[in-house]
Structure formats: structure tokens, C-alpha cells
Amino acid sequence: MNTPACLSHPVRRLTLLALCLGSLLTSRAAESSASLTLHADQPGAVINRNIYGQFAEHLGTCIYGGIWVGEDSSIPNTRGMRNDVIAALKQLQVPVLRWPGGCFADEYHWKDGIGAREKRPSMINTHWGGVVENNHFGTHEFLDFCELIGTEPYVCLNVGSGTVQEAMEWVEYMTSDASSPMANLRRANGRQAPWKIKYVAVGNESWGCGGNMRPEYYADEFRRYNTFVKNYAGNRITRVAGGSNGDDLNWTETLMANAGKQMDGLSLHWYTLPTGNWKKKGSATEFAEAAWMSTLRHTLHMEELLTKHSAIMDKYDPEKRVGLVVDEWGTWYDATPGTNPGFLQQQNTLLDAIVAGLNLHLFQNHADRVSMANIAQMVNVLQAMILTDKDKMVLTPTYHVFEMYKVHQGATSLPVALSTPDYVLGADKIPAVSAAASRDAAGKVHLSLVNANPNSAITVSCTLAGLTAKSVSGRVITSAAMQDHNTFSAPEVVKPQPFNGAKVDASGQLTVALPAKSVVVLTLE
Q: For residues 199 and 152, is the Cβ–Cβ distance under 8 A?
């Protein structure tokens, strides 16, 4: 090969190498910096607390062993509910809890779960592992648990295998203060005063495990069931229709056209599969960077779903009266080896913390339409907050993100204009930095940031419009390896730490040294 004339001279070669190196360093410097303008002068919608909601299904050890151990258990409990789990969830300030499913809801007959426990009939949980369900955790236990942790119940009615009468009577049993058959049955079972039930779902995944219905058929079923969901004295129910499976925009279009005026909310389900393949989803803990990227790329599809489904809802509901309820979301990996595959048990790593932060930002940034979200699930199942094993309990990285982000609950969203480098791996790329901001009732501004790049720290230069910050403090979640997670023998590998990488200069400019693969929450005062 002939050497070009411009490289034939040693000085020219050194000069060109210096230029190339300088160009490379400049490029890398550009890639490791982002800019953000926080518009405190342009407050947006109030962030509904319910986007930090949870989901507890009769699935695996979510209920039995995770929440309920029974009053005779050696594990410390309050009326059968684990004290350690109660304490951890109270710290999260869980706003709303969905129950009893999920697919289980459409084979659940609520009268089997009331009265003396020893007399309750057992059933087979055909959806999840084929195990015996003894119905010891029923309506009274669930609503007692909600009161213990300070959360609003979100009850899913059985539309798939139930009846309108059954659904109507359940609502009466829970919420009526009249002298009526179901209210009197509740009293006979030990609860004098009715419960307040704000949220009711009319069926679950009616396009699949909830009945394999067509959207036109389900729209009519929703209207029929909804007619008999009564608002008894002192109780006003928000009615959530069963919505789309991910990209099924036709389902949303049909439901909004035929039943939009009757509903208060419309659900959406989307799970993050690392591979996108339901038969081989990938390991929760044994993965390389390619799976890290694939997982984050799939989870960010949520942005497209929120945008497209919201656009359809806007067409029929420009006043945004009907909330978009993402009542199932989170990571879904292959089950932990050696466990019942129907129990959907999986570990929870730093990657799951990043997934949680990204999705919560998306929900917050769509606060004008997203009124609730319920991560799947609360304990021991899928992207859980908490893992238990007999008397042991551990908090997951996802738990810690929810705990850090609780400062956004009920706060006013503040727009952020973000310019971020991409995180690139092979042919794939995603935005490296994600951000969301809010102002709470006390006037404090909180800025949460996610760096999805597992390899590079990123300096974020922040302009604070309409805000003069005198101080900044924060916490961070990160770890040495992307696969790091908490175990019963090492429960604090991934947990929040004080963050000292944010500074406000004399001009009011905020600079944040955002570590690789991290979630940071800042408080500006």
C-alpha cells in the first residue's frame, strides 16, 4: 500500500496523529456531557401519587409467605401479615395496591374467601403453578393489609368466569352501609363499617386469560358490568376498563369509541423482556452488556406506547377525564433455576433499578394522562420490591428507587429540556440520560436522573429557570457490576448512598457528575 504524501513526512504524521487524538478526545468529552434546563417557571400537571402503585396477585409466594403467614406463624405478624413486610412498605408510602390479579382475578370467586378460614373452600390455581389455594387471604385480609400499610385498595372484579350479580354483590359487601343482604353478611363476618374502595377494575386482560374476548364484545361487557358497580353512600368508585396488550391500538380505539363515556380509566399492560421472546426471556442475574442494552431498549418502548395510546384517548376525551392506568409493568426474566416456573420468581439487580427509574420518569412526564401505574409485583414475583424466604427478608434495588422517588408523589411536575448523548452498543442506541423534576408542597424542587450507560460517567450541566437554588443534596444508587443484587446473606450490596457529585455555582448553574449505571435524586432548596 502506498503511503499518502501528506503522511510521508514525520512531522506531518505526528501533527495528524495529534489532530486525530484531539478529535477523539473532543468526541469522547462531548459524549460524556449532557445539558438540561429545568423549567421551574413552567409548572405542569400534578403527578398522581398512584403511578407509584403496586400489584399483589395470588401468584407464587407473593401472598402466601410474602405477605400472609397466618396468625399462628413464628414469623412476627399482625393478624397474619408479616411485620417486616408491613414496615418496609409503610416506608415506601405505597399509594395504591391492586388485587387479587392478574389472571387469577378472573377465576377468583370472592365468597370463597370470607368467613371462618377453616371453613373456606380450597381451589386450584390453574394459572400459576397448579398449587392449592386455601383462600385464607381474602377480602377482609386484603383490606386489613391495605389499612396496615396505609394504601388505597384497587380491586379487580371477575368478568372472565364470574357473573354480574357476583360483581355487584362484592361491591355491596365491601362498601354499603345499608341494612342489606351483603352488608349484613359483612357485619356477620366481623366488619361493621364499610370500607372505602376508590378503585375497581372491571376484569383483567379480557383479550387473553380474562376471556379471549374481542374488543367490541368486551366493550359491551364493560358497559353491562359497570352498570351494576354501585356508588353506595359515602363511597365513589373510579371504574377502570380492561385495556390493551401493549401495541394493540385497535383495542384502545374500540374501547374509547364504545365505552369511553362510561369509564374513568383504561388500563395498559407492558412487560420488559430482555430478549423480546416469551419462550426464552433471559436470566435476571447472568447477563452481559448486550442484554443490558436490549432490556433498556425494550423498556423504553413504553414511551411510544404512552404516546400512541394517549393520542387515541385524546381524540375521544380531549379533556383528559379518563386516566391511562398502566396497572401491569416491569421486567420479566426466566424464573430462578430450581424454582416452580409458574411462580415467576426472579432476582432483582442494578439493571432493574435503572428500568424502574426510566419508567417512573416516563409516567411522570406523561402526568397529564397517566393516572396510575402498578409494578408487577410487590413481593417475590417478577420485579418485586421485597424478597422473602421463611423468616428472612431483603429489599431489592427496585424498592430503593421507589423509596428515593417518593418525593415526586403528589408534587407538581416541572418540565425539563434535556440534551443527552446516546448510549451506543453495536447497532443499538438509546438516550444515556433520563430526567424528571417536580416541586413539592413545601416548595422543594426534586430532580431525578438516570444514567443508563454502564461504562461512562456523564456530566450534566443544568440551567435552573425560575429557580434560585442555594443548596443541593442527594442520594445515589449504583454498584460495581451491572449484575449486582441483594441476597439474604448480603442484603446491602445495592442500596442508596449519599451523593456529593452535585454543585451549584455562584451564578446558580447546577452541575451533576452522574456516575455510570446510576440513579440519582437531588433536592434543591
A: yes
Give the C-alpha separation, 274 to 247, whole Å: 17
Give the active site residue among 328, 403, 492, 525. Answer: 328
Q: Which of 107, 169, 172, 205 is catalytic?
A: 205
Q: Please state whether beta strands 152-157 and 96-99 pair in parallel, antiparallel, or not at all (unpaired).
A: parallel
Structural domains of the chain, ranges and CATH numbers in brackets? 33-44+414-524 (2.60.40.1180), 49-409 (3.20.20.80)
SS3 199: strand
Task: List alpha helices for 366-431, DSSP H.
Answer: 397-405
Whether residue 378 contacts residue 330, with contact meaning beta carbons closer than 8 Å, is answered with no
Query: Can you list the positions of beta strands (E) in 106-212?
Result: 123-125, 131-133, 152-157, 199-202
Sole residue written with cell 379533556: 319
Give me the phi and psi of 504, to 5 degrees please: -110, 120
Q: Give helix 139-149 / helix 164-175 axis angle, nearest 10°.
A: 50
Cα 479 to Cα 517: distance, rounded to the nearest angstrom:
8
Decide if 141 is catalytic: no
| Number of Cα atoms under 13 Å in the Cβ half of residue 308 | 15
- Of the candidates 517, 519, 514, 491, the one whose C-alpha atom is nearest the C-alpha of residue 503 is 514
For the beta carbon of residue 250, count every other beta carbon within 10 angstroms. Answer: 11
| 380: its cell numbers | 417475590
Residue 455 burial class via C-beta count within 10 angstroms: exposed 0-12, middle 13-18, buried 19 and up: exposed
Report, in this order, helix, strand and coil percent for the chain, each rounded to 5: 30, 25, 40
Q: What is the pLDDT of residue 16?
A: 36
Sign for the pseudo-dihedral over CA of 171, 173, 177, 180: positive
With beta carbons less than 8 A apart as the criterion, state whether 452 and 358 touch: yes
Q: b or e along 109-125 (b: 16 or more beta carbons within 10 Å of the residue's beta carbon)?
A: ebbebbbebeebeebeb
Q: What is the pLDDT of residues 340-377, one digit of tens each?
A: 999 999 999 999 999 999 999 999 999 999 999 999 99
Q: pLDDT tens digits, residue range 262-311?
A: 999 999 999 999 999 999 999 999 999 999 999 999 999 999 999 999 99
Q: Would you list the DSSP string of 170-182?
A: HHHHHH--SSSHH
Does residue 177 contact residue 233 with C-beta atoms inside 8 Å?
yes
Bridge partners (DSSP) listed for residue 475: 498, 521
Question: What pLDDT digit, counting tens, does each position of 160-200 carry?
Answer: 999 999 999 999 999 999 999 999 999 999 999 999 999 99
Q: What would the grid cell of residue 233 be?
A: 353512600
Residue 31 has pLDDT above 60, yes or no: no
Is 245 within 8 Å of 208 (Cβ atoms)?
A: yes
* Closest CA relative to residue 329, chosen from 54, 126, 39: 54
Q: What is the pLDDT of residue 506?
A: 87
Cell of 54: 403496586
Residue 169 falls in the annotated catalytic set:
no
